[in-house]
Every structure is written in structure tokens, then in C-alpha cells.
Automatic annotation (TrEMBL):
Family: Belongs to the SEC8 family.
Organism in which the protein naturally occurs: Amorphochlora amoebiformis
Protein name from the UniProt record: Exocyst complex component Sec8
Keywords: Coiled coil, Exocytosis, Protein transport, Transport
GO BP annotations listed: Golgi to plasma membrane transport; protein targeting to membrane; protein transport; vesicle tethering involved in exocytosis
UniProt cross-references to Pfam families, sorted A to Z: Sec8_C
Top-rank taxon: Eukaryota
Amino acid sequence: SETISELLREEKSDTFLTNPDGNSALLKSIILESMNKLGRLPSCQAALKNRVNQELKKIIDIETDDLKQKYSLSQTLTTSRSRNVDPWELVLKHSGHGSQRESLKNSQQRLLELMNNVFGVFTRVLQNHIDVWNIIRAKKEAKEKAEQLEIQAKKIEVKRSHSDDLDEILFSGIRQSDLMLGTRPKPKPKQPTRDVRGVNAWFVWEAIQTQLVKMLRLYWKVNQQVDLANQDKQNKLRPGEDLKLDFRFEFSDIPSVAALARENPTVRKVETKKTEKKEGPQWIEASPYHVPACYRRVVAFIDQAHSMVDDSPNPESSSLRNFMNNFIRQEFIPRVQADAHKIITRILCDTASFKPFDTVGRVSTDDVPSVLVHSSIRFSRLVNNLMRDMLSLPHSVSDYLRVVELACDRYLQHCEEKFKQQLPSKLYSAQVLGDVNFLKLCKTDKRSQRVFGTRGRTKTDYNPQSVFKVESQHF
């Protein structure tokens, strides 16, 4: 045909021969046109759908291995002494927890770099599939248009034949009942045409979301199982399509971002690496506290992908976004609440929690104590970290804010109890009320007995704190 001849002429050009990958659209057109002429286009579609999950997983493995090799060659990874890393451990002077906080920060940076590399390759993979399916859609539309023209031509031919037969009946005098015994061939029934609007790269985006959910579950340390539908079951082959065709577009041969930055290889020279299964990633410490650092980046990738795919549903209903929202609501917020409770308990149980806080470089010229105490400084930093993480999450803010309110209520309640315990011993009036001579005076004075309620009490059952409470009420 003219189309294949034109493509072959372009293929013989020097530009295409020296760099065939430079014109990927022409390469796809040549392959798909050849498959169409051989009648193997349905098998081509089936092969693309069946291999997409395997290819995407291979891309993640390549990016992970390359980035892991980059960090192993550049520096020695710092591992924390405890696997239960405290995300908000306050790094005060000589606290000894700086390495844990630094390890979590490094893990977040590496995870973001890995996600950016994977998102970059996945974007190119999605665009390649969109180009392929646009070509297939155009060919299907052209084929169905030709079939419709052929059906219309057959209808016109049958109509002319009926008209000729009717003329013959009228002029020859043959009765119409004789036609009932005739052997006129019946026209073939109209074959149902396939809806070309369903031919798109949406299944690729669903497969990408499935692989990204698996990756996030690994690095976010997800405990609960997420039930995701297997997208391969929705892409079953129609009867008659060939399953044995080994046809594939080498999307997995796209060079990784880390490899390009390190070696700058060509597209054809990149070889896929076989990775061994391990218990878990050691170069990135798995933690639910990676969510605030990664959430907005993942949402941006979701919006970008939905803008690329034609006739895509609402981005708010994507399986990847639903996974993140469910994880934040069901696992992340309860974990934050439990850790905040643990940290507040540690702050309040410290023997120096309510001692004056001496700032660095302060010169004490007198005995005037500091206004702030150790616990107030540590608790304010905890609230600051809580609010920072809350502002990084657009969803479930009300539930997260409830965690902050509970933490503040608990700390303020403890401070109030501590204030009531320590204040009577600090006030001069409380010291006077606790004096033995003043107690005797109150017992002999009737007016004092009415005010302080000391009538009938002995020296042993007198409580200065209760007297202080009565005094504060009168004030």
C-alpha cells in the first residue's frame, strides 16, 4: 500500500538509519503498519496489555538498584541504633538522638529522589503507550469506516437486485407465491463493530498505579493489606486472539535516570538487571513518616498522568490517591497520636522537666530563675513538628488537628497539677498560713474561723494547701 511504501522510504533515509530511536513515532508506525498488514494487530494489543505490569516492575527495580549503587559508592549509609525511630526526637544538647533524626531525613531525601526518577520514566512509558494506542485507534477507525462503506455498498446492491427481480415478476407474469420456493441466498447478518472509544492507554495508567502502591507500601511500612483489583483480569483476550505472539515494545530498555546521570549510555546499550528479592530496603529506612514528604509529589504525578490520558475519570477517584488517603486516616494518624503520647510521657517523667531552662550562652548574674522550663521548650518543638506535618497533608486535617488538641490538653492539665503542687511553697502568703503561730491565732479568732473554716480542726489535720485554695477563691 501507499502507507507502507512511504514508511519504508523514510526508513531508508540516513537520518533514520544512524539514529532509529530519534524518530520513535516513525518506528512505531512502521511496526504497527506491518502488524496490521499481517493481521496481527489484536495480538499486538494483547501482548502490550499482558507485559505492562512486568515491564513497570522491572523499571522500578532498575531505578532502585542504580540509585542504591550511587549511594553505596558515594558514602557509607548511616543506620540508626534502634529500628523504632522516633520521628520527633528533640535534638537538645547532648541528647544523643541526632543520628536517628538524621537517618530519617536522609531516607526521605533518597525516597524522593527515587520517586522522581521512577515518575520520570513512567511518564515516558505512559506517553509511548498513548502514541501506540492512538495509532491503533486510527487504524481501527479506518477499518470500521471501510467496513461500513462495504456494508452500505452491499445494501445498495441488494436493493438493486430486488428491484430487478420485481421488474421481472411484473413483466413475466410469474406469481409472487412462486418466490417462496426460490433459493435466493440470504444476506449475511451485520457483524457488530467494536467501540473504538475504548481503545486507549488507560490500562497502562492503572498498572502504573498498582506498581506505585506496591513501592509505597514497602517504604511507608504499611501493616494492613490493601485490596486492589488485578488489572490484568480486566484485560482478557477476545476469542480468536493469539496468546503465543512474543511481541513487545521495549519500554523497559529506556535508560534509568540515575544511569543517565552517571554514565550517559545510549538507549540500546542499557541492559536490564535481575534483582534478588530481599526482606526489605536497607538504604531507605521504612517509616510511615515519609508520607508528609512524599504526598504532594505523588499527587502532582497523578494530576499530570490524568491530563495525558484521554477520557480519564476524575483524578480524585484514582486508586493511588485512595490508597494514600486511607493510609493517612487508618494508619498514619493513629501512629502519630501514639508517638505523641509517648513523647509527652517521656517529657513529663523527666526529673528536669519543670526546672528552669538555661539558654545557650546565657550569663547568670543573679539568682532570678528563667521564665520557661525544660518541658515547655520540648513540648513547643513537638507541637511545631506536628503542625508542620499537618500542613503537608491536604486531607484528614480535622482528624490530625484533634491529635494536636489532645496533646495540648494533656500537657496543660499536667502543668496545672504541677502548678497547684509547687505554688503554695513559693508564695509568702502560703508560708505564713503554714506557720504554727498563725494556726494558733486562727483557732482563737472567730472571724478567722469563719473565713478559713478552721473551727474544730486540730494541728494534725490542718492542710496548708486547702487553706491556700480557700484564699484563692476569696481573691
